[in-house]
Amino acid sequence: MNVLITGGAGFIGTHTTRALVVQGHTVRILDSLDPQIHGAAPQFSAELQQLADCRLGSVLSLSDCMQALDGVDAVYHMAARTGVGQSMYEIADYVSTNVLGTAVLLEAILKKKMQLHRLVLSSSRAIYGEGLYNCASHGVQHPEIRSVEAMNRGDFSMPCPHCQTAMQALPTTEDCPSAPLSVYARTKKEQEDYCDYFAKTYRLPVTTLRYFNVYGSGQSLKNPYTGVVSIFFSLLREGKALSMYESGLPIRDFVHVRDVVQANLLALSSPQAAGQKFNVGSGVPATIADIARTQAQAMKLEASLEDRGEFRVGDIFACYADLEHSRRDLGFKPQVDLLQGMEEFVAWASGQASANLYDKTVSELRAHGLFGQARRS
């Protein structure tokens, strides 16, 4: 097929392009080459220019989208601003790129009267807000955001909304209600809503993939908003201590990009994937401290973990994927465990330039009232 990937020059898009070409597909990329991701003088890599028809343009431009859609059979919509913290103070840009950009792409598909084989939307686990939990007394719960007052006291656990007892995290299913807690999460929810509306109204076969915490070779080492794997790598490389937000206790689901690509390919080829939403994670819960120690192990270093009582206001405590639906109806089976994935990332990252911008992110969060530190006696 002829496949368009919006945002295809990014981390996941590049890996997906390689895999699609191996399968015999022809790939076109539409990407604005955001300097925050691609550097001060951004350009398409030589590899991508050999693999794909690379077009500099924006999903905010109807003409760019319509031209990029010429002759296309399927679309992966990956173009988006990412990063929870930054979305809370660069609101207009996130809403514009993620929500309006999706609307413009859908309008272009409509105006061209296209009958696509598939539109695959890259969504996020962020739309769930907190994941699912179990209270020993009150059963399964989907709680709201934790109170800043409790976190200021150093209590980072997730209390039951009925009895205030600390709850245990459960795997989160796709039917968990959406409860976005950040601007980024809200924009991903709106992307889903627009695609759902479009699918029902115009019979467009849409598959939505809710990525969990994706990592691996090729992710930006200079963008401080790409997540803790890049941040930890830069700090470990410099021999610096790692500050463990919330004592390193928060639980996440880190999924290697190779497994994400597997899900992307299945979303294109699986007949039963149309009209469905799928979690794309490892299905294995890992604390932030687990991530730090595993990454240090992959780097053959000892991690120095510091508990300064720091936390990010509005952050979730736990969310990891239930993969039953993805295994059954998509055929998705993660293959890369955390240590293998970290070793792959470290082998690549060790030959790349990185930038320690951790202090920059903290100062920006603090300036906007989004960074806290527990009071301890």
UniProtKB/TrEMBL annotation:
Domain annotation NAD-dependent epimerase/dehydratase: ranges: 3-131, 169-281
Family to which this protein belongs: Belongs to the NAD(P)-dependent epimerase/dehydratase family.
Lineage top rank: taxon: Bacteria
Pathway the protein takes part in: Bacterial outer membrane biogenesis; LPS O-antigen biosynthesis
Protein name: NAD-dependent dehydratase
Family matches, as Pfam families: Epimerase (PF01370)
InterPro entries given in the database record: Epimerase_deHydtase, NAD(P)-bd_dom_sf
